[in-house]
Every structure is written in structure tokens, then in C-alpha cells.
Automatic annotation (TrEMBL):
It holds the Pfam family POR. This is 2-oxoacid:acceptor oxidoreductase family protein. The keyword Transmembrane does not apply. SUPFAM superfamilies: Pyruvate-ferredoxin oxidoreductase, PFOR, domain III (SSF53323). It comes from the Bacteria.
């Protein structure tokens, strides 16, 4: 198994957090992983992205040109990276923000109303957890239990009150991809 994933969106949408979560869960499951963030002018309101590799074999390079999956949290991300996804790849689209449809017929598209669901569960900041749930449900790349344990370990002390919110966001995202 080898997943080469681009996660992209506006700064503040949690795209780096999605990438870090995938990598940390991958390490917990004994996978070989890489995480390469792309910063720069993107931090000032443009599109930020990161590249993640999850593999059951050693990873030769954190860089790749054709992702197996794309997570597009905004329209500029979809427009920029859709052409690069491999044939029969998978594209996740935050349909709360992106009204366009994936143009390619040789990939599978999953539309997840991340922002809408995040607002419904009580906090717009968990849109990234909604998308993470959709990703793990659709790909099976990581176990749900690993992600749940990671969430519990991320939010401790006074932040422990955020665990149920993030768990609900994860669950609702998983339901979108089934």
C-alpha cells in the first residue's frame, strides 16, 4: 500500500493539521510516512498545502508529482491539483466551499460538506476533522480506532472538552464517504 496525498486549502482551514494527523496515525500503525508542508505567501490568505506519503514499504522521497489522492478544501486547490491526480485516483472536495464539480471522468470524486457539518456540530474549526473522517472511511488507509486514540491524546487537560466535538466531526465525515 502506498498513498501519496496532497492536502490543500486556504490558510486556517486545517490542511496542515489533516496532514500531520495522517502521518501521526500512520506512525502509530507502523507505516512509513513523510509530511512536507508548503508555506510561503500562502500563509497570508492564499492556498497552503502539504504532501503526505503513507506506505507499508520504505519511502524513497517525500516528493511526488502525481498524487493518488487530493483533498481540496477550496476551489484554487481543486483547480491547481486536480490535473495531477493519477488515473483512477480519488479527489475529496469540501463542497461547502467549492460549488464546482470535478471535471475529470477518470477519477472518483467525493463531495463532503465539511464546513456545513462543522457548523452543525457546533464549531466551524472542525471542518478538517470532518474531511479526515471522510478520507479514512473512503480509503481504509488507516484504522478509525487509531484516529480516535490520536484525537484523545491531542486534547488533554482543559482541552479535553474538545474531544467529543472532534469525535462527532470525524464520525459525520466518515458517514459522507460510505
Amino acid at each position: 500500500m502506498k498513498k501519496e496525498i496532497i492536502i490543500s486549502g486556504f490558510g486556517g482551514q486545517g490542511v496542515m493539521s489533516i496532514g500531520k494527523s495522517l502521518v501521526e496515525a500512520g506512525v502509530s500503525e507502523g507505516l512509513e510516512v513523510t509530511w512536507a508542508p508548503s508555506y510561503g505567501p500562502e500563509m497570508r490568505g492564499g492556498t497552503a498545502n502539504c504532501s503526505v506519503v503513507l506506505s507499508d514499504k520504505p519511502v524513497g522521497s517525500p516528493l511526488f508529482t502525481h498524487p493518488t489522492e487530493l483533498i481540496a478544501m477550496n476551489l484554487p486547490s481543486l483547480e491547481k491539483f486536480e490535473p495531477l491526480v493519477v488515473e483512477h485516483g480519488l479527489i475529496f472536495v469540501n463542497s461547502s466551499v467549492v460549488s464546482e464539480r470535478v471535471a475529470r471522468q477518470d477519477v472518483r470524486a467525493i463531495y463532503v460538506p465539511c464546513s456545513k457539518i462543522a457548523d452543525e456540530v457546533g464549531n466551524g474549526k472542525v471542518a478538517n476533522m470532518v474531511m479526515l473522517g471522510a478520507y479514512i472511511a473512503a480509503t481504509g488507509a488507516l484504522r478509525e480506532e487509531t484516529i480516535r486514540q490520536m484525537i484523545e491524546s491531542m486534547f488533554t487537560g482543559p482541552k479535553a472538552k474538545l474531544v467529543p466535538l472532534n469525535m462527532e466531526a470525524l464520525k459525520r465525515g466518515m458517514a459522507c464517504a460510505q
